[in-house]
Amino acid sequence: MSLNIVERTNADEAISLELQGSLDSDTAPQLDDRLNSIIGPETKVVAFNMAGVTFISSAGLRVIFKTLKLMKSRGGQVSVTQMSKGVRKVFEIVKVMPDLTVFASQVEMDEYLEAVQRRAER
């Protein structure tokens, strides 16, 4: 299965991506390459809308963890929204949920990202 990556926001401090499809050993390098090309030196927040993710493997988790580690080293964060029950269960099993910011809806995440960007512009 393929992975479609849609950039919803790309500002200096915040990036928001919508993922659709399978995040596995075949598609994880695609996400990793995309993140490497859009995360800049000022980026502190990376947000993933995972409503369209139908499957995640350890390779997909590695990309998320790598991004989380980078953002934490900058005093930033990774957030996710709209995970399916199956994908959420995978995150719970590997005990990463406490390190992620989880939003109930896309609107809630968008409001947060907008606030981050407004603060950065001051």
UniProtKB/TrEMBL annotation:
Instruction: Please name the CDD domains in this protein's record.
Output: STAS_anti-anti-sigma_factors
Domain of life, per lineage: Bacteria
Domain STAS stretches? 4-116
Q: Which GO terms describe its molecular function?
A: anti-sigma factor antagonist activity
Annotated TM spans: none
The similarity annotation says:
Belongs to the anti-sigma-factor antagonist family.
Return the PANTHER family for the record. ANTI-SIGMA FACTOR ANTAGONIST TM_1081-RELATED (PTHR33495:SF2), ANTI-SIGMA FACTOR ANTAGONIST TM_1081-RELATED-RELATED (PTHR33495)
Q: What is this protein called?
A: Anti-sigma factor antagonist
> Native species of this protein?
Marinobacter nauticus (Marinobacter hydrocarbonoclasticus)
